[in-house]
Amino acid sequence: MYMNETFVEYFIIKGISDVPELQITIFIIVLVIYLITLGGNMVVFILICMDSHLHSPMYFFLANLSIVDMASTTTSLHKILISFITGDKTVSFNGCMTQSFMSGSFTVHELFILAAMSYDRYVAICRPLNYHLVMTHRTCVLLASLCWTLGFLFISPLVGIFSSFSCYKSIEINHFLCDIVPLLNITCSNTSILDILFLIEGLLLFTIAPFIFTFAPYIFIIVAILKIQTSNGRRKAFYTCSSHLTVVILLYTLLISQYLVPNSSSNFDSKKLYALFNMAAVPLLNPIIYSFKNKDIKKALKRRFERKP
Fold first, then answer.
1. Is the CA virtual torsion 275, 97, 76, 59 positive or negative?
2. Are 61 and 144 in contact (CB under 8 A)?
3. Rounded distance, CA 144 to CA 133, Å?
4. Where would you tag: which of 135, 232, 271, 284 has the fewest CB atoms within 10 A of its CB?
5. What angle do CA 192, 196, 198 make, to 5 degrees?
6. What is the pLDDT of residues 41-68, one digit of tens each?
7. DSSP character at residue 163
8. Could you tell me the end-to-end alpha-carbon distance of the chain, in angstroms, rounded to an integer?
9. pLDDT tens digit string along 72-123?
10. Distance between CA atoms of 258 and 19, rounded to whole angstroms?
């Protein structure tokens, strides 16, 4: 559906696939992923809040990551579920801008929280004697607050400029949510300022900055691990950060595939799949990776089940 330089009041979300036969299958898969993601992250969050053995900086940031994952999944996937139930694929202009703002913010939140977790692992492995002096409760709260604030601050200018656009070639968004990239493909407004801002913030602030803050500590961590004399000591040290490193590598791989690969009609559908995996599967995998490989989480679960009524 095309329009000639006309202000729009709503958009039509195309969704994951146009094939009618796949709609029920897609709905069931997305619903199951959504419910498991909410349940898994909620369990991790409640365990960390209720179990005193988990009141440490590492689990404080993991609790923040669980909140981000639950909020991000809800923001990104709710339209797929609602449109299947109601048959309504439209979203208001303001609703679209709100979803773009929230989904973008939560992505930045997650990147910087993972960076804060890298710093925590660096202090724990490279400066173990000073760990409790450096990673105080006040420091953790300040770092978490900074992560949340940066997410909202970085996305606000992008969405603020985009919300002022009134010219669109089409009201159909080739995606399963409102995102700035597919919106850029259908606007006919002058996007030069937004393109520059998107490049500066998207490449430098969203990607390179958290990437450096996340992976730079691992250079020192790897050096410190290699200096450990015993193989058992090296294995134990690496075990403490292997879950976090797995999540970080997976997330950055998907984000690069989703945003940094040049757009074309042939690869945009594959980008939607990368986006779906990023926004649905990664929040699902986070509690699984951190729980199945984490003895403290498993012990906390065991204590909850063994507690007498």
1. positive
2. yes
3. 18
4. 232
5. 110
6. 998 899 899 888 888 898 999 999 999 9
7. T
8. 60
9. 999 888 888 888 888 888 999 889 999 989 988 898 898 899 999 999 989 9
10. 23
Are the beta carbons of 69 and 103 closer than 8 angstroms?
Answer: no
Task: Please choose, from the candidates 275, 288, 286, the residue with its C-alpha nearest in 3D space to the C-alpha of residue 103.
Answer: 275
Sign of the four-CA dihedral 261, 262, 268, 270? negative
List all residues 6 or more positions away from 8 whose beta carbon is below 8 Å from its beta carbon.
Answer: 93, 166, 168, 171
Q: How far is the C-alpha of 251 from the C-alpha of 214, rounded, in Å?
A: 12
Tens of pLDDT, residue by residue over 236-292, are 777 777 777 788 887 787 777 666 655 554 455 666 777 777 777 788 888 887 776
**Alpha helices in the chain, H assignment, sequence order:** 23-50, 57-86, 93-126, 131-134, 137-162, 180-186, 192-199, 209-227, 231-255, 268-276, 282-292, 295-306
pTM: 0.85
How many angstroms separate the CA atoms of 222 and 225, rounded? 5
Structure tokens at 136: 């105080």
**CB under 8 Å, gap of 24 or more: what pairs does 299-306 form?**
299/53, 300/47, 300/51, 300/53, 300/54, 301/43, 301/47, 303/51, 303/53, 304/47, 304/50, 304/51
Mean pLDDT of the chain: 82
